[in-house]
């Protein structure tokens, strides 16, 4: 799953359009469109923090930090 997929899913869980998320997060709607469509694959940390805060998710989730890691592996890595 891409960052754009995760943004879209979180946005849709709230029932928001891209315009609504753009307004709430203070992020250009065109950037959201590029991320969600896969035309753009990354963005700044500031944008990610704003999106995460408004969407109620972590930046780690948005960037897929732990995607593909088994839960037991994650717990072991955090405990180390």
CATH class: Mainly Alpha
Name the average pLDDT. Answer: 88
Strand content: under 5%
Helix content: 55-70%
What's the quaternary structure here?
single chain
Low-confidence stretches: none
Explain the overall architecture.
- The chain is an all-alpha fold and 80 residues long.
- The chain has a single domain (3-79), classed as lambda repressor-like DNA-binding domains (434 Repressor (Amino-terminal Domain), Orthogonal Bundle), CATH 1.10.260.40.
- Helix content is 68%, strand content 0%.
- Helix 1 packs across helix 3 (29-37).
- The protein is globular.
- The model has no long low-confidence stretch (mean pLDDT 88).
List key phrases describing it.
about 80 residues, mainly alpha, 434 Repressor (Amino-terminal Domain), globular
Question: What is shown here, in short?
Answer:
The protein is mostly helical and 80 residues long. 68% of the residues lie in helices and 0% in strands.
List the helices and strands and how they pair.
Blueprint: H1 3-14, H2 18-25, H3 29-37, H4 45-55, H5 59-63, H6 71-79
Helix pairs in contact: 1-3
């Amino acid at each position: 799953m891409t960052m754009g997929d995760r943004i879209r899913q979180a946005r849709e869980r709230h029932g928001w359009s891209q315009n609504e998320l753009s307004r709430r997060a203070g992020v250009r709607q065109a950037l959201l469109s590029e991320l969600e469509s896969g035309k753009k694959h990354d963005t700044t940390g500031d944008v990610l923090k704003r999106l995460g805060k408004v969407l109620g998710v972590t930046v780690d989730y948005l960037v897929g930090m732990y995607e593909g890691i088994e839960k037991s592996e994650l717990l072991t890595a955090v405990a180390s």
